[in-house]
Amino acid sequence: MQKNSLNKVILIGNLGQDPEARFTPQGTAVTNLSLATNEAWKDQNGEMQDRTEWHRVVLYGRPAETAAEYMKKGQMVYVEGRLNTREWEDKNQVKRKTTEIRCDNFTMLGRRSDNQGGGAPSAGAMNTAPTPSTSIDDDDLPF
Hints:
By secondary structure, the chain is mainly β. It is 7% helix and 46% strand. It has 1 helix and 6 strands. The model is unreliable at 117-138 (pLDDT under 50).
């Protein structure tokens, strides 16, 4: 067995639909995301081409609950995880196989308005700069 191997996926993309949440019979939350990443390039004729790649992302436990509650279609999301391939038999005893990203960590990106006004602020919405109503005086600095 190779000890120096790595299974790591990092994606930044947009949700293609609202998260699909469910619970296992044991009560564990499971949320599935459909994440789109885009690539653009100029072809040999100088014309712009683009391609969208779709990724299946699965979250478990408390992160799955958070994603289901706050994520919405179209929202930009940063996802870290690993590739995971599952096999199963469907109702008709046909063997099925899928490869998905098992998410270990995620961050909701963009502005609060991108979330259509609902839920917790995303990482891009956290503003630490002083607003007109709060100013920082040199005397207030700790150094």
